[in-house]
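Page 37, continued from 36.
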């Protein structure tokens, strides 16, 4: 779900907590990667001529290409990635999911208006807001990671609930 503005908050309150390093400085480390966020990034950013990359039969492949090349870059730099996939969302997230669905509907309306007006910038902007990671995207990336020998885990949100002190 993320925390909006967390990086800025940390930078403002504890600037020494954030350090920028070259990737080579992390040689030998194991890192956890938020797989869902990565897939969104790849579906939005890995494009050709404004559209997602696709296979010969029209299936989206941006998420596969992004995952593959990011993983290769990490491995080449001696970093051992572990991808963390979200499990089923908890009930307490349902209101946030409803808000996201509402925002997606608004983006769809705005996209249609931009298309009618021939507004290329608006079309690009609103089509990116409609990107959604599907279970197929997730399954395909898990299969890729298996083939690459890269570990991944699926978060079991019951643990988040059980170990949250506010629930007891």
């Amino acid at each position: 779900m993320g925390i909006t503005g967390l990086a800025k908050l940390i930078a403002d309150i504890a600037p020494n907590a954030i350090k920028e390093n070259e990737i080579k400085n992390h040689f030998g480390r194991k890192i956890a990667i938020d797989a869902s966020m990565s897939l969104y990034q790849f579906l939005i950013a890995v494009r050709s001529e404004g559209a997602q990359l696709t296979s010969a039969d029209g299936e989206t492949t941006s998420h596969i290409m992004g995952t593959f090349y990011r993983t290769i870059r990490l491995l080449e730099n001696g970093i051992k990635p572990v991808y963390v996939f979200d499990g089923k969302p908890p009930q307490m997230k349902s209101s946030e999911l409803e808000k996201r669905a509402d925002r997606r509907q608004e983006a769809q309306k705005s996209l249609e208006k931009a298309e009618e007006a021939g507004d290329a910038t608006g079309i690009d902007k609103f089509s990116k807001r409609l990107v959604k990671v599907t279970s197929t995207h997730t399954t395909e990336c898990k299969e890729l990671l298996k083939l690459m020998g890269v570990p991944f885990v699926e978060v079991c949100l019951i643990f988040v609930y059980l170990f949250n002190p506010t629930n007891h």
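The longest helix spans residues 94-117. Flag for discussion at group meeting. The chain has one domain: 6-155.
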